[in-house]
């Protein structure tokens, strides 16, 4: 019986708990520092299970010791963006939170598979790995699935085609420099640029969608005003958890600790990986166009800047 601990019982954590229970992936443990929040959501979800026929338990609490011996830990804790904020603006506050969580993972559940959702995502995944000592194949950042879903959704609406017929990937850092790959974007097998030409659609429409994708989270934040996206992030994280627990070996874009792949070392950057019951079982190499290669390098540089800042902050605080 699998144990899945969700650190952070906010909107993403609550929705993720519901999805995991609905898919019968295992026992769910919600943890949040806000007194009563995790217990309250666990109780509410448990009662809904009487109608939805959940077969596993859902519990909650405020102590990080509750993550002990977890098979999977999903980290969503941290402050969320407000209108006008970038993901990068969250770094100092959320770094302190990741330090505490990383230490708890090291003590209570050092062999678990970790999924980081907290922003700025690539840098926070790096901090979690640094503090917890988790092996590189056992920790990922959830970003590429979400970014790809947003890109697919916007393309579907603009081109009036089914989302099911669109295959695409968004790589790089989770932020304004993310890289949607047009060379790997197809509609029922037809390359996107060829599809545009056949249907007399201007390339600018897709270029505008790329920019909208890069600001996809910010657009939701500006509309909600008092919170950030949670439905799409939760289902994206659930995809990773399910692929790990059920050994589905899905090929998905995830923020991954690279040690030379794609010419990148010691950084978490979004690339295609295969997720199975051993965690990251393979990093898949794709060929970039010259434009995509330059965009990817720019994105890596942005991640490097934030990661270096985290490293300096850790040294300053004697870590």
Question: Gist?
Answer:
This protein is an alpha/beta fold and 319 residues long. The protein is 45% helix and 19% strand. 49% of the residues are buried.
Share of residues in strands: 15-25%
> Largest sheet, if any?
6 strands, parallel
Report the count of strand segments: 14
Stretches with pLDDT under 50, minimum 5 residues: none
Mean pLDDT rating: 95
The helix-and-strand class reads alpha/beta
User: Approximately how much helix is present in the residues?
Assistant: 40-55%
The radius of gyration is 19 Å
Strand order of the largest sheet: 3-2-1-4-5-6
Between the first and last Cα atoms, what is the distance in angstroms?
35 Å
Instruction: Give helix and strand order, one letter per element, not per position.
Output: EHEHEEHEHEHEEEEEHHHHEEEH
Number of helices: 10
- The rough form would be described as globular
Folded structure, characterized:
Helix 1 (11-22) crosses helix 9 (231-245) and helix 5 (144-159) crosses helix 9 (231-245). The longest helix is centred in the C-terminal third of the chain and has 27 residues, at 290-316. The strands form 4 sheets. A 6-stranded parallel sheet has the order 3-2-1-4-5-6. It is 45% helix and 19% strand. It is globular and about 55 Å long. The mean pLDDT is 95. It has 10 helices and 14 strands. It has helices at residues 11-22, 37-52, 91-108, 121-132, 144-159, 192-198, 203-214, 216-224, 231-245, 290-316; strands at residues 3-7, 27-31, 58-61, 72-75, 113-116, 139-141, 166-167, 170-171, 179-180, 186-187, 190-191, 250-259, 265-276, 279-283. The chain has 319 residues and is of the alpha/beta class. 49% of the residues are buried.
């Amino acid at each position: 019986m699998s144990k899945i601990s969700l650190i952070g019982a906010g909107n993403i954590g609550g929705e993720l708990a519901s999805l995991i229970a609905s898919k019968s992936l295992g026992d769910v443990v919600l943890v949040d520092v806000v007194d009563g929040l995790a217990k309250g959501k666990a109780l509410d979800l448990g009662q809904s299970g009487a109608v939805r026929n959940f077969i596993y338990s859902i519990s909650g609490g405020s102590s990080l010791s509750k993550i002990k011996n977890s098979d999977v830990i999903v980290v969503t804790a941290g402050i969320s963006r407000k209108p006008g904020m970038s993901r990068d603006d969250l770094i100092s506050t959320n770094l302190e939170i990741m330090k505490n969580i990383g230490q708890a993972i090291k003590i209570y559940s050092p062999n678990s598979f970790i999924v980081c959702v907290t922003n700025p995502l690539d840098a926070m995944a790096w901090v979690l790995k640094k503090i917890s000592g988790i092996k590189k194949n056992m920790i990922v950042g959830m970003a590429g699935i979400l970014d790809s879903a947003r890109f697919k959704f916007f393309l579907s609406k603009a081109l009036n085609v089914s989302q099911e017929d669109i295959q695409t990937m968004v790589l790089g850092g989770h932020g304004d420099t993310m890289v949607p790959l047009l060379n790997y974007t197809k509609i029922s097998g037809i390359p996107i640029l060829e599809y545009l030409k056949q249907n007399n659609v201007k390339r600018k429409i897709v270029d505008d969608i790329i920019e909208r994708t890069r600001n996809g989270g910010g657009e939701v934040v500006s509309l909600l005003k008092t919170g950030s996206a949670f439905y799409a992030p939760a289902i994206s994280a659930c995809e990773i958890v399910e692929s790990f627990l059920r050994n589905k070996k899905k090929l998905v874009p995830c923020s991954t600790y690279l040690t030379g792949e794609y010419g990148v070392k010691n950084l978490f950057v979004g690339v295609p990986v295969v997720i199975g019951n051993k965690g990251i079982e393979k990093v898949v190499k794709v060929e970039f166009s010259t434009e995509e290669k330059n965009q990817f390098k720019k994105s890596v540089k942005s991640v490097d800047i934030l990661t270096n800042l985290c490293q300096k902050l850790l040294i300053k605080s004697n870590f």
